[in-house]
Amino acid sequence: MPGATEQKIIDAAVRLFAAQGYDATSVQEIVAAAEVTKGALYHYFRSKDDLLFEIYRLLITAQSADMDRIIGLGLPVAETVREILVSLVVSTAERVDETAVFVRELHRLGEERMTDFRAERRRYHETFLAVIEKGQADGDFSSAVPADTVVRIAFGVVNQLPMWYRPDGEKTPARLAGEIADFVLAGLR
Amino acid sequence: MPGATEQKIIDAAVRLFAAQGYDATSVQEIVAAAEVTKGALYHYFRSKDDLLFEIYRLLITAQSADMDRIIGLGLPVAETVREILVSLVVSTAERVDETAVFVRELHRLGEERMTDFRAERRRYHETFLAVIEKGQADGDFSSAVPADTVVRIAFGVVNQLPMWYRPDGEKTPARLAGEIADFVLAGLR
Question: How confident is the model at residue A40 (pLDDT cuts 50, 70, 90)?
Fold first, then answer.
């Protein structure tokens, strides 16, 4: 978890990147909006690119930790899937601005960071896949559709959220999350 | 439908954009690869941006026409949904390169084209939404999950295909399409 100063910088950067774009936002504007010194920013982040990456890394790290926590509860598999999907959809829906900025600027990440990013995403993907596969193997879920396609469907809607979801629209993140979990579990029955 | 020369230009452009990027590809390279004259290219396309847009417009126009044709068959609603999804997934999966290029370069479209693009996408979305809603209203589908979320889930996986699907991988477009249709229809039961 980031400290208070780091969090202030991240919050300011997310607001500015989302409002005026990554290119149009200077480090000077970020430190002014965050009410910190340039020295403080460079203490935590090597560059504007580094800040962008850190914004997204924090989100996916929190999502991974949350999935591990849910699996650790040892609930029945349908409950585990519901909790994982609700947690993922809510955390993504609440942060569509960050995710949209990150996706748009993804091509800026250097090779090393792209590798880190893909590894983290792959771990998340494979952990969820293993949950679905176990549910199918134990007969709790239908095996009519292979687990890899079920996971692509569940993550597809989550990854597309930044393209259309607005947290101040008519559906709250929790309501949308419940609907998505209901549909995926209905498909697995 | 484009004529033979136009199609040769489009095919060459797609190959080059996918292999080396949009920026790195010159109009000269496209005409050389397509074995046409620069004059022929500029007869069909005002600019490289115009060509990029046309590549994608042809795909979504064909997908829309196909959905209209399927609905016109007057099949039972579950069959209609299956045919629409299979057609959409197959046509997208066969053209992940085009779609990936387009998504990456989306920000280059001017305001007028973005408006056209969004209108075409919206029409497609709303037509499919109406099919699901009618199936729910007639009692052929479960109404447990609202139709708008069902559509977001079905289109989410399709729109994410360019991020992970490879047509030369282990799943053919037709097989993947069948799995996705099976899962969506299972969720609607």
Answer: very high
Provide ipTM, 2 decimals.
Answer: 0.89
Tell me the pLDDT tens digit for each residue of A71-111: 999 999 999 999 999 999 999 998 887 788 777 777 777 78
Question: B110-130, pLDDT tens digit by residue?
Answer: 788 888 888 989 999 999 999
Structure token digits, residue A69: 């926590």
Q: Across residues B132-159, what is the average pLDDT?
A: 98
- B75's tokens: 């099949």
| Structural domains of chain A, ranges and CATH numbers in brackets | 1-45 (1.10.10.60), 47-188 (1.10.357.10)
Interface residue B68 vs chain A (CB under 8 A): no
Query: Burial code of B33-48, b = ≥16 C-beta within 10 A, e = fewer?
Result: bbebeeebbeebbeeb
SS (H, E, C) A29-87: HHHHHHCCCHHHHHHHCCCHHHHHHHHHHHHHHHHHHHHHHHHHCCCCHHHHHHHHHHH
Q: Per the structure block, which two tokens stand in for B104? A: 């990456």
Give the HSE-up count for residue A168: Cα atoms under 13 Å, Cβ half-sphere: 1
Chain B partners of A187 at a C-beta cutoff of 8 Å? 183-184, 186-187
Q: Are B117 and B109 in contact (CB under 8 A)?
A: yes
| Nearest CA-CA distance, residue B107 and chain A, Å | 9
State the average pLDDT over residues B11-24: 88
Interchain contact B189–A (C-beta under 8 A): yes
Q: In the numeric block, which tokens belong to residue A58?
A: 């924090």
DSSP state of A21: -
Does A115 contact chain B (CB < 8 Å)? no
- Kindly list the residues from chain B whose CB atom is less than 8 angstroms away from the CB atom of residue A107: 104
Residue B108 neighbours by CB under 8 Å, 6+ apart: B22, B49, B52
Inspect the interface and report whether the beta carbons of B153 and A157 lie closer than 8 Å. Answer: yes
Contact between residue B81 and residue B165 where contact means Cβ atoms under 8 Å apart: no
B187 → closest Cβ in A146, A160, A187: A187
